[in-house]
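Regression test attached.
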Amino acid sequence: MAAVDELAFHEFEEATNLLAETPDAATTSQSDALTSRGHVAVIVGSGIGYGAEEMEEEGDKILLLQEEKPQVRFWTFDYYQSFFDVDTSQVLDRIKGSLLPHPGRNFVRHHLRNRPDLYGPFWICATLAFVLAVTGNLTLVLAQRRDPSIHYSPQFHKVTIAGITIYCYAWLVPLALWGFLRWRQGTRERMGLYTFLETVCVYGYSLFVFIPTVVLWLIPVEWLQWLFGALALALSAAGLVFTLWPVVGEDTRLVAAALLATVVLLHALLALGCKLYFFQPLPLEHVIPAPQATPLSPSVLLPTSAQSVTT
Amino acid sequence: MRDLKAVGKKFMHVLYPRKSNALLRDWDLWGPLILCVTLALMLQKSSVDGEKDGGPQFAEVFVVVWFGAVTITLNSKLLGGNISFFQSLCVLGYCILPLTVAMLICRLVLLAGQGPINFMIRLFVVAVMFAWSVIASTAFLADSQPPNRKALAVYPVFLFYFVISWMILTFTP
């Protein structure tokens, strides 16, 4: 088809030739197109639909190219609606992908397929914050069952602290990571990196594995808690590393290693901080108040001092 | 009087959830306000013992309920639901009624002293009322979502009432 050949890419050296023959080529191609259309329309019965479809497709393609970017502004509702364009099955699939990291499969390319969503990260962070506060409180209840000298209180302020910590981690760390990768890309001019939303998505979904872990931390066996924590951290960090590896692997060895080490370290710090703050090991409450145990110390010291006075 | 009657009628609709549009068509926020204030007042500790890590303060309950409801509504609209903002707030607020009743019962039960049986009764009551709240609000809200996203819209409602139930269950006078 002459029309398609004319639209094909020509080398720059032939530009003058092209310019010379464009007027003629235009008319010939148009007439060719007309005749070919007429040809198709007249002769072959089944070809009518086919030819018409192709012409329509080209017309559609031209239309699409013209209105490629609809230019949705960030202060309209539709801008944010595009980030929630996921179905239940897609969210579940992404969660499964984060739970089982695979070295060959990049989370962003394989599961997100360049359509990041904000639903997953937001609600996973909210669930994690509430589950942390609730199970932390439950451990206190269970501890009080065993040892009535521990003072129980609902500790509602822990919900606020949990929420702020988790949300700050899940949004500020991806921001820093994305900023750093952009800066490195600026100096290196390598392959495409992830958008900010994709980074937030990766981090948000990687936090999902901590939700069942936190519930399992209710079991008061110390070594089992550390084991679950280590497992969760390994899964979560592996997911992050496998996702970041293609982007970072093209950088120098030193920078790549340092970046991945920092990512894993921050993740480990978060897990450790949550474990120590929300699930304080019991002997700590009876001993000299450590900095993390200060909210409990006034109420704990009172019963213990009362006990010592009576005995 | 007319407003009071409307509020009372909506309470009845929540207690016996049927597929009626009364809650959705003429929404009002009086009911949710009354319920929220009642819940927040009942969640205050009766004894002032100067503890900082006690139960939720009055303002905290308000913040949890109203910001929670707004967040769920925004989530529902962003997922493509065709329910209006205030209709959704109205439904979520009114469906706190079973949990407020649970709070009343818990306070009465706690007057009899604390203990494991006491806790079991409270747990049972709160669990039943939590299920009632979730079912009531889902009956009204789920229809407004596209079918392949219903679970995504209902899960935050579940989380919201779970948090309120936990606040009620952990209340100690």
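Expected vs. actual: identical. The CA atoms of residues 110 and 118 of chain B lie 7 Å apart.
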